[in-house]
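Slide 14.
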Amino acid sequence: MAKVLIIIGLVLVGLGLIWQFAPWLLSWFGNLPGDINIQKGNSRIFIPITSMAVVSVVLTIIINIFRH
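Slide 15: predicted structure.
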């Protein structure tokens, strides 16, 4: 369990560094076809369906690589 928590922490630190110093790498998130963005007046509804599907597939591949 400790190994998993260390890996999750390193991934979060890496994402934080990318977000801070290279935000253009994450600019695709939320802008893919299939992501729902509704704006009416002062209200906004954002549902990143396609972006979350891509993240899920990438994480599944990474986890399966490290598991074997």
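Speaker note: The first strand starts at residue 36 and ends at 40.
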